[in-house]
TrEMBL record:
Domain annotation Alpha-D-phosphohexomutase C-terminal: ranges: 383-456
Alphabetical list of CDD domains matching this protein: PMM_PGM
Protein name (database record): Phosphomannomutase/phosphoglucomutase
SUPFAM superfamilies for the chain: Phosphoglucomutase, C-terminal domain, Phosphoglucomutase, first 3 domains
Any Pfam family matching the protein: PGM_PMM_I
This protein's record includes keyword Phosphoprotein: yes
Cofactor entry: Mg(2+)
UniProt keywords, alphabetically: Isomerase, Magnesium, Metal-binding, Phosphoprotein
Limits of the Alpha-D-phosphohexomutase alpha/beta/alpha domain: 14-133, 178-264, 271-378
Family membership noted in the UniProt record: Belongs to the phosphohexose mutase family.
Organism the protein comes from: Nocardia callitridis
């Protein structure tokens, strides 16, 4: 019997959507073994017979994934190890093998962190209300990690699915007639260094200029978080120096992809969402496309103009995936550069989004900046975080200050205030930190800057 752990400790590590914490003090083999045992019991009750397990390049990942597998095996399910993998490669394994999965990664977090992303068969998400609360309860109560007779112990096998994953993705996008392209790719010493050569390296007429492809979980060059502009600087310089047609940057577990144009200027993930939505709607006119509420309004406007049905959701992959399943949406996008595809079991794949962008660029004899210009209809602030003691009070103060200029307010996720001339802003409190997150969009950068200044003067006063 494993000793019971405090609710405070477990709640800090088993979060709303995944498991994540500091290795040694929060995440250790015994802890993840118990999570594996509980997850196996949960999946066994739903009829599963095996769990597929992958891990990223962090030093702690192999041992932690092995400990998790012990919990799975002791509870009567087989463990299928796919070894080094990107998160979307694990989703491919879960979908193609039709079994639950566990991916060991802390995504873009620093080296001292690790964690687990869990999914059901078909890459369906496991979140707080769909299983993590059950696992959390068992781990807190100290339920024995062995809940099955030893003779019912599962079997462990190894399976290399990298080539199958690459073949499957390339089969979803027409790439036969690409013009010659030079692509600068920053893998950030993360799993993009594992998947990019297999997926993109075999494309005809494509030359890859690699940056930081060496797998290194200490992230010696920069954090594997392209959402922070500071981590795009090296890629931007490489694009300019190499004369590349486009630059791609992947985060640590390579499930998100960020794009820069031939000048090294960042391309908004909302613009990428619009481009991919247009391509998917061309294949299936009238389909549903999901977008979260901080995505540019250019996305639902374009989807509507093309005859599709835009559906707006809260921020977060679990909400997107729920709506993907509920609506049968063909595609979904978030401003954080997560892109979801019905053809990929409703899961997110930055690599598949990259293939769509490359196909669109390679089909036309025009530079990336011109290709994306039509999708960048508005200016945006990006997400700006402020540390606040009273998020609710600060939000109410901002809403009150803008009351006379407000056209509408909704509270789907935080507050979204619609102003005149297509301007709007969203304020959302973090679920885990004393932060208030601001996103602003307007017709011009000057309008955006003015709104940001005004709002932050209230929030940070």
């Amino acid at each position: 019997m494993t000793d019971a752990r405090s609710a405070e400790f477990v709640n800090a590590v088993i979060k709303a959507y995944d498991v994540r914490g500091v290795v040694g003090t929060q995440i250790d083999p015994e802890f993840v073994r118990d999570i594996g045992a509980s997850f196996a019991r949960l999946m066994r009750a739903e009829g599963a017979q095996r769990v597929v397990i992958g891990h990223d390049m962090r030093d702690s990942s192999p041992a932690l994934s092995a400990a998790f597998a012990e919990g799975v095996l002791d509870n009567g399910l087989d463990a299928v190890h796919i070894g080094l993998a990107s998160t979307d490669q694990l989703y491919f394994a879960s979908g193609s093998l039709n079994c639950p999965g566990a991916m060991f990664t802390a995504s873009h977090n620093p080296a001292r962190y690790n964690g687990i992303k869990l999914c059901r068969a078909g890459a369906r998400p496991v979140g707080q209300d769909t299983g993590l609360d059950v696992i959390k309860k068992e781990v807190i109560e100290g339920v024995s990690a062995v809940d099955a007779p030893r003779e019912a112990r599962g079997n462990a096998t190894e399976l290399d699915l990298l080539a199958d994953y690459a073949t499957y993705l390339r089969g979803l996008v027409t790439l036969d007639d690409l013009r010659p392209l030079t692509i600068a790719v920053d893998a950030g010493n993360g799993m993009g260094g594992h998947t990019v050569p297999e997926v993109l390296g075999t494309l005809a007429n494509v030359r890859i200029v690699p940056l930081y492809f060496e797998l290194d979980g200490t992230f010696p060059n920069h954090e594997a978080n392209p959402l922070d502009p500071a981590n795009l600087v090296d890629l931007q310089a490489l694009v300019r120096e190499s004369g590349a047609d486009i630059g791609l940057a992947f985060d640590g577990d390579a499930d998100r992809c960020f794009v820069v144009d031939e000048h090294g200027d960042p391309v908004s993930p909302s613009a990428v969402t619009a481009l991919v939505a247009e391509r998917e709607l061309a294949k299936e006119p009238g389909a549903v496309v999901i977008h979260n509420l901080i995505t540019s309004h250019a996305v639902p406007e374009l989807v509507g103009e093309l005859g599709g049905t835009p559906v707006r959701t809260r921020v977060g992959h679990s909400f997107i995936k729920q709506e993907m399943a509920a609506t049968g949406a063909v595609f979904g996008g978030e401003h954080s550069a997560h892109y979801y595809f019905r053809d990929f079991w409703g899961a997110d794949s930055g690599m598949l989004a990259a293939l769509h962008v490359l196909a669109a660029l390679g089909e036309k004899d025009r530079p990336m900046s011109e290709l994306m210009a039509s999708y960048a209809k508005y200016a945006a602030s990006g997400e700006i975080n402020s540390t606040v003691e009273d998020a609710k009070g600060s939000t109410l103060a901002v809403v009150s200050a803008f009351e006379k200029r407000t056209i509408s307010v909704d509270r789907l996720d935080g507050v979204t205030v619609q102003l005149a001339d297509d301007a709007w802003f969203n304020l959302r409190a973090s679920n885990t930190e004393p932060l208030l997150r601001l996103n602003v969009e307007a017709r011009s950068p000057e309008e955006v800057d003015a709104l940001v200044t005004e709002i932050l003067s209230i929030v940070r006063s």
